[in-house]
Design brief:
The complex is a heterodimer of chains A (about 220) and B (about 200). Chain A has one domain. Chain A has about 220 residues and is mainly alpha-helical. Helices cover about 85% and strands about 0% of the residues of chain A. Chain A has ten helices and no strands. Chain B is of the alpha/beta class and about 200 residues long. Chain B has a domain of about 60 residues. In chain B, the strands form two sheets. In chain B, strands 6-7-8-3-9 form a five-stranded parallel sheet, sandwiched between helices. Chain B has a four-stranded antiparallel sheet with strand order 2-1-4-5, with helices on one face. In chain B, β1 and β2 form a beta hairpin. In chain B, α4 crosses α5. Chain B is globular, with a radius of gyration of 17 Å. Classes of the chains: A mainly alpha (about 220), B alpha/beta (about 200). Chains A and B meet through α1 and α5 of A and β6 and α3 of B.
Amino acid sequence: MLKAVFALLARDLRLARRRAGESLLVVAFFVLALTLFPLGVGASPDILARIGTGVIWVLALLAVLLGLERLFQPDLEDGSLEQLLLSVAPLELLVAVRCLAHWLGTGLLLALSSPLLAILAHLPSEALWALPLSLLLGTPTLTLVGAIGAALLAGSGRGAMLAALLVLPLEIPVLIFGLAAAEALIAGTDARAALLFLGAFFLGALALAPFAVAAALRLALE
Amino acid sequence: MIEARELACRRGGRLIFSDLAFRLKPGDALLLVGANGTGKTSLLRLLAGFARPAAGVIRWDGEDIAEDLAGHRTRVHFLGFADGLKGLLTAEENLAFLAALLGPGAEPLARALEGFGLAARAHRPARTLSAGQRRRLALARLAAAPRPLWLLDEPGVALDREGRARLEEAIERHRARGGIAVIATHGDVSVRDPLVLELGDRSAC
């Protein structure tokens, strides 16, 4: 059974490596979208420094939502999903592994590239580690919750846009506490509560989302 | 042994078939024939445990599969119209993944590829293979991971005469080992002493 789980992880990572361009597109969106803000709100450094943390977190959320379409749709179309369902490993476990592989190609890259955005937005130097830390803790939850929407709409033909709308309300708490954690860390105030909330959201999503996703995928194949 | 009784299937509010019954012993092969839209694929999906019947039961060795659908699915090889292959992976990588996913007790991958005449193309990405070669690769997983119940939906599509001969040979080997095969076909695949279920005319066998 573990062999099946590791085989899926190895396959997904290999696929991600062979189409690295798609992951880079997510990062490119992240960076380019930020460069629009000076055009929209004016290039004054103090405005950017004030809204920068929030903007970067919102962009990270949008980038994760954009990537949701690739989570299950390709597997549904090429018949891989049926094979996952026939596996000796439980679908819930395979779903968790799929989310992990997907996060490595989206959330992790976003977190790692966020210091670059912090510099672009004139954020204080504390943001160079505070932003990636809050994103590292928050984006896995965004992916897991987003996966529920992606799975519910897989096969309905309505695609990622509706999935994004569907899960957006559920992602908002992560955004609020992620932002609170990042801003507290930057300001040097007590960030523990926000970080604990982020961690709790992650553990809750990790415990519940795979079951919801697996149930939705079984329905999609019926 | 797999047994279906009073089976009915509904899709999109329409009753596709009802009161279907059959019983297959180890070594049996059942050919599903019938016009398009008579429910061949739907029946295969019921037997695979992907969908639940509108009425009736399916029993494996006397036990209702609805009681443990996840367990039942681990007995099944399902070959649908989609191949379940990733174009960016090589033939061998695709097969190695599927064998590990569906495992355990796989036969050597090289032999499974060889069995469908793909040995020379093992390291080519699947997207560069022709439709027939992709079909062969999809079929190779049947040999790479032994499972007692084969559900094949139009397995002969895109295969040349030699490919169909290899497929028929694989089915006979599977039956000789006590396996069961249910094959939806429009007549391009033939097996020895098949049971035939014609869908659309409500017969039983």
